[in-house]
Amino acid sequence: QVPLVESGGGLVQAGGSLRLSCAASDRTFSLYAMGWFRQAPGKEREFVASVSWSGGVIDYTDDAKGRFTISRDNAKNTVYLQMNSLRPEDTAVYFCAAKRRGSGKYDYWGQGTQVTVSS
Description:
The protein is mostly beta strands. The chain contains no helices and 11 strands. Strands 2, 4, 5, 6, 9, 10 and 11 form a 7-stranded mixed beta sheet that branches. The protein has a 4-stranded antiparallel beta sheet with strand order 1-3-8-7, with no helix packed on it. The mean pLDDT is 95.
């Protein structure tokens, strides 16, 4: 089990920015690929961005590309999601997740942090 704790969510006006953090209390953090997902009310959870264990491979949805930046600091066991130019439709609970090498799915999930973007 890899405990993951998200923080940094909150209320922001449209056009504003937030930086989410996800801290892992596990010394093997650097061995996991990390992802950010979100779930809006009444909708299914969806992928937002991911970063490989080394940080060398990064992926975004088309919606996130150009507005969001995922990064990781393996020395701090933390992954970040910098979100700029936020829109009301970005309102959701944001989750981070960890995927072991060779795993076809994300194995561990945080509890989520609420992001609310007002118009």
